[in-house]
Amino acid sequence: MMLPDYWLTRPPAELDEGIRSRFDRLWGSTLARGTNPMIEYDLPAPRWQFLCYLAEHHDLALHGSGDPDISLFEPRQPHDLTEFGNQKAVYAAADGIWAMFFAIVDRSRFDMSINNACIRLVDPEGNSSGPFYVFSVSKSALQHRPWRTGTVYLLPRTTFMVQPTIPFGPVEVHIAQLASLSPVQPLARLQVSAEDFPFLQQIRSHDDARLAEYGKAMQTGAPWPED
Protein backbone atom coordinates (compact mmCIF):
# COMPACT_ATOMS: atom_id res chain seq x y z
CA MET A 1 0.00 0.00 0.00
CA MET A 2 1.06 3.60 -0.58
CA LEU A 3 1.83 5.88 2.36
CA PRO A 4 1.50 9.68 2.20
CA ASP A 5 4.62 11.53 1.06
CA TYR A 6 5.56 12.72 4.55
CA TRP A 7 6.65 9.17 5.37
CA LEU A 8 10.38 8.81 4.66
CA THR A 9 12.12 5.65 3.49
CA ARG A 10 15.45 4.63 4.97
CA PRO A 11 18.32 5.54 2.63
CA PRO A 12 19.82 2.61 0.70
CA ALA A 13 22.52 0.78 2.62
CA GLU A 14 24.15 -2.14 0.86
CA LEU A 15 26.48 -3.45 3.54
CA ASP A 16 29.08 -5.84 2.16
CA GLU A 17 30.65 -8.59 4.24
CA GLY A 18 33.69 -6.45 4.93
CA ILE A 19 31.82 -3.61 6.63
CA ARG A 20 29.57 -6.04 8.51
CA SER A 21 32.67 -7.73 9.90
CA ARG A 22 34.11 -4.37 10.93
CA PHE A 23 30.84 -3.47 12.66
CA ASP A 24 30.93 -6.77 14.56
CA ARG A 25 34.57 -6.33 15.56
CA LEU A 26 34.00 -2.78 16.77
CA TRP A 27 31.02 -3.88 18.85
CA GLY A 28 32.99 -6.78 20.32
CA SER A 29 35.98 -4.62 21.20
CA THR A 30 33.66 -2.02 22.75
CA LEU A 31 32.03 -4.56 25.05
CA ALA A 32 35.47 -5.81 26.07
CA ARG A 33 36.29 -2.35 27.44
CA GLY A 34 33.82 -2.68 30.30
CA THR A 35 30.53 -1.08 31.30
CA ASN A 36 29.02 1.64 29.09
CA PRO A 37 32.12 2.88 27.23
CA MET A 38 31.90 5.56 24.56
CA ILE A 39 32.32 3.83 21.20
CA GLU A 40 35.45 4.98 19.38
CA TYR A 41 33.90 5.18 15.92
CA ASP A 42 36.37 5.46 13.04
CA LEU A 43 34.70 3.43 10.29
CA PRO A 44 33.94 4.79 6.79
CA ALA A 45 30.22 3.92 6.99
CA PRO A 46 27.76 6.52 8.37
CA ARG A 47 26.98 6.17 12.05
CA TRP A 48 23.30 5.56 11.35
CA GLN A 49 24.23 2.41 9.40
CA PHE A 50 26.25 1.12 12.34
CA LEU A 51 23.39 1.78 14.77
CA CYS A 52 20.77 0.20 12.52
CA TYR A 53 22.99 -2.84 12.05
CA LEU A 54 23.46 -3.30 15.79
CA ALA A 55 19.73 -2.91 16.47
CA GLU A 56 18.83 -5.53 13.87
CA HIS A 57 21.68 -8.04 14.22
CA HIS A 58 22.69 -7.83 17.89
CA ASP A 59 19.22 -7.66 19.50
CA LEU A 60 19.74 -4.24 21.06
CA ALA A 61 17.46 -1.41 22.14
CA LEU A 62 18.62 2.15 21.38
CA HIS A 63 17.91 5.31 23.36
CA GLY A 64 18.84 8.81 22.19
CA SER A 65 19.61 11.57 24.71
CA GLY A 66 21.38 14.88 25.09
CA ASP A 67 23.00 13.62 28.30
CA PRO A 68 26.31 11.81 27.60
CA ASP A 69 26.72 10.44 31.13
CA ILE A 70 23.73 8.21 31.92
CA SER A 71 24.77 5.07 33.81
CA LEU A 72 21.28 3.73 34.57
CA PHE A 73 17.93 4.35 32.91
CA GLU A 74 15.02 4.51 35.36
CA PRO A 75 11.35 4.20 34.33
CA ARG A 76 9.66 7.58 33.89
CA GLN A 77 6.09 8.67 33.25
CA PRO A 78 5.77 10.36 29.84
CA HIS A 79 2.83 12.22 28.33
CA ASP A 80 1.96 10.35 25.15
CA LEU A 81 -1.13 10.05 22.96
CA THR A 82 -0.95 6.23 22.84
CA GLU A 83 -1.64 3.74 25.63
CA PHE A 84 1.66 1.92 25.11
CA GLY A 85 3.65 5.15 25.09
CA ASN A 86 1.99 6.48 28.24
CA GLN A 87 3.35 3.85 30.65
CA LYS A 88 5.89 4.56 33.38
CA ALA A 89 8.81 2.89 31.63
CA VAL A 90 12.22 3.16 30.01
CA TYR A 91 11.63 3.78 26.31
CA ALA A 92 13.91 2.84 23.46
CA ALA A 93 13.82 2.14 19.74
CA ALA A 94 14.49 -0.99 17.71
CA ASP A 95 15.88 1.29 15.00
CA GLY A 96 19.07 3.34 14.87
CA ILE A 97 17.77 6.34 12.93
CA TRP A 98 14.75 6.81 15.20
CA ALA A 99 16.98 6.81 18.29
CA MET A 100 19.27 9.38 16.65
CA PHE A 101 16.36 11.82 16.31
CA PHE A 102 15.95 11.97 20.09
CA ALA A 103 19.70 12.43 20.50
CA ILE A 104 20.01 15.42 18.15
CA VAL A 105 16.76 17.35 18.88
CA ASP A 106 17.49 19.83 21.67
CA ARG A 107 14.38 20.01 23.83
CA SER A 108 16.38 21.29 26.81
CA ARG A 109 17.09 24.68 25.18
CA PHE A 110 14.02 25.07 22.95
CA ASP A 111 10.38 24.83 23.98
CA MET A 112 8.79 22.35 21.58
CA SER A 113 6.67 19.27 21.09
CA ILE A 114 7.76 16.49 18.75
CA ASN A 115 5.79 14.16 16.50
CA ASN A 116 7.63 11.14 15.16
CA ALA A 117 7.32 7.48 14.26
CA CYS A 118 9.16 4.51 12.81
CA ILE A 119 7.13 1.67 11.33
CA ARG A 120 7.27 -1.37 9.07
CA LEU A 121 4.29 -2.71 7.12
CA VAL A 122 3.60 -6.44 6.95
CA ASP A 123 1.10 -7.75 4.38
CA PRO A 124 -1.16 -10.83 4.78
CA GLU A 125 1.52 -13.00 3.14
CA GLY A 126 4.07 -11.92 5.74
CA ASN A 127 6.09 -9.67 3.44
CA SER A 128 7.63 -6.70 5.25
CA SER A 129 8.34 -3.25 3.81
CA GLY A 130 10.09 -0.29 5.37
CA PRO A 131 11.17 1.00 7.74
CA PHE A 132 9.30 4.27 7.20
CA TYR A 133 9.79 7.39 9.29
CA VAL A 134 8.13 10.69 10.22
CA PHE A 135 9.97 13.46 12.07
CA SER A 136 8.38 16.77 13.07
CA VAL A 137 9.01 19.49 15.68
CA SER A 138 7.06 22.57 16.72
CA LYS A 139 6.92 25.22 14.01
CA SER A 140 8.13 27.85 16.48
CA ALA A 141 11.27 25.80 17.17
CA LEU A 142 12.20 24.57 13.69
CA GLN A 143 13.19 28.04 12.49
CA HIS A 144 15.94 28.10 15.16
CA ARG A 145 17.45 24.79 13.96
CA PRO A 146 17.17 23.23 17.42
CA TRP A 147 19.87 20.61 16.97
CA ARG A 148 22.68 19.44 19.23
CA THR A 149 25.38 16.82 19.54
CA GLY A 150 23.84 13.93 21.46
CA THR A 151 24.38 10.35 22.55
CA VAL A 152 22.76 7.11 21.48
CA TYR A 153 22.83 4.47 24.22
CA LEU A 154 22.84 0.77 23.35
CA LEU A 155 20.80 -1.28 25.81
CA PRO A 156 20.16 -5.01 26.27
CA ARG A 157 16.66 -5.93 25.10
CA THR A 158 16.10 -8.49 27.87
CA THR A 159 13.40 -6.56 29.76
CA PHE A 160 11.89 -4.65 26.83
CA MET A 161 8.40 -5.18 25.43
CA VAL A 162 7.58 -4.41 21.78
CA GLN A 163 4.67 -2.07 21.07
CA PRO A 164 1.69 -4.15 19.83
CA THR A 165 1.01 -4.14 16.10
CA ILE A 166 -1.84 -2.08 14.68
CA PRO A 167 -4.16 -3.28 11.87
CA PHE A 168 -4.23 -0.84 8.95
CA GLY A 169 -6.43 -2.02 6.11
CA PRO A 170 -5.01 -5.31 4.80
CA VAL A 171 -1.63 -4.85 6.51
CA GLU A 172 -0.24 -4.78 10.02
CA VAL A 173 1.78 -1.81 11.26
CA HIS A 174 4.83 -2.82 13.31
CA ILE A 175 6.10 0.07 15.43
CA ALA A 176 9.77 0.14 16.46
CA GLN A 177 9.04 1.38 19.99
CA LEU A 178 10.17 -0.64 23.00
CA ALA A 179 9.38 -0.21 26.69
CA SER A 180 10.91 -1.67 29.84
CA LEU A 181 9.12 -1.42 33.17
CA SER A 182 12.41 -2.15 34.93
CA PRO A 183 15.60 -0.05 35.15
CA VAL A 184 18.13 -0.73 32.40
CA GLN A 185 21.92 -0.38 32.48
CA PRO A 186 23.38 0.61 29.10
CA LEU A 187 26.03 -1.53 27.44
CA ALA A 188 27.72 1.26 25.48
CA ARG A 189 27.10 4.68 23.91
CA LEU A 190 27.88 6.51 20.68
CA GLN A 191 28.18 10.26 20.17
CA VAL A 192 26.21 11.60 17.19
CA SER A 193 25.89 15.07 15.69
CA ALA A 194 23.06 16.65 13.75
CA GLU A 195 25.11 16.12 10.57
CA ASP A 196 25.05 12.36 11.23
CA PHE A 197 21.24 12.32 11.04
CA PRO A 198 20.27 11.31 7.46
CA PHE A 199 16.90 13.15 7.48
CA LEU A 200 18.00 16.48 8.95
CA GLN A 201 16.63 18.42 5.96
CA GLN A 202 13.35 16.46 5.97
CA ILE A 203 12.31 17.20 9.56
CA ARG A 204 8.85 18.75 9.32
CA SER A 205 7.07 21.26 11.52
CA HIS A 206 3.64 21.29 13.15
CA ASP A 207 1.29 23.61 15.02
CA ASP A 208 1.33 22.63 18.71
CA ALA A 209 -2.37 23.43 19.13
CA ARG A 210 -3.22 20.89 16.44
CA LEU A 211 -0.87 18.11 17.52
CA ALA A 212 -3.67 15.55 17.81
CA GLU A 213 -4.60 16.18 14.16
CA TYR A 214 -1.10 15.29 13.03
CA GLY A 215 -1.12 12.16 15.13
CA LYS A 216 -4.47 11.11 13.68
CA ALA A 217 -3.23 11.71 10.14
CA MET A 218 -0.24 9.44 10.76
CA GLN A 219 -2.48 6.71 12.17
CA THR A 220 -5.04 6.86 9.35
CA GLY A 221 -2.81 7.59 6.36
CA ALA A 222 -4.37 11.00 5.78
CA PRO A 223 -2.40 13.93 4.28
CA TRP A 224 -0.30 16.14 6.56
CA PRO A 225 -2.68 18.80 7.98
CA GLU A 226 -2.48 22.11 6.15
CA ASP A 227 -1.70 25.38 7.94
Relative helix content:
10-25%
Q: How much of the polypeptide forms β-strand, as a percent range? A: 25-35%
Main structural class: alpha+beta
Shape: globular
DSSP E strands, number: 12
Explain this structure.
The protein has 227 residues and is α+β, with helices and mostly antiparallel strands. Helices cover 22% and strands 27% of the residues. It is built from five helices and twelve strands. The protein has helices at 17-31, 47-57, 96-104, 139-142, 211-220; strands at residues 8-9, 60-65, 90-93, 114-122, 128-138, 150-156, 160-162, 166-168, 171-175, 177-180, 188-192, 204-206. The strands form three sheets. Strands 1, 4, 5, 8, 9 and 12 form a six-stranded mixed sheet that branches. Strands 2-6-11 form a three-stranded antiparallel sheet. It is globular, with a radius of gyration of 17 Å. The model has no long low-confidence stretch (mean pLDDT 93).
Task: Briefly characterize the structure.
The chain is an alpha+beta fold and 227 residues long. 22% of the residues lie in helices and 27% in strands.
How do the strands and helices of this protein lay out in sequence?
Layout: E1 8-9, H1 17-31, H2 47-57, E2 60-65, E3 90-93, H3 96-104, E4 114-122, E5 128-138, H4 139-142, E6 150-156, E7 160-162, E8 166-168, E9 171-175, E10 177-180, E11 188-192, E12 204-206, H5 211-220
Parallel strand pairs: 5-12
Antiparallel strand pairs: 1-5, 2-6, 3-10, 4-5, 4-9, 6-11, 7-10, 8-9
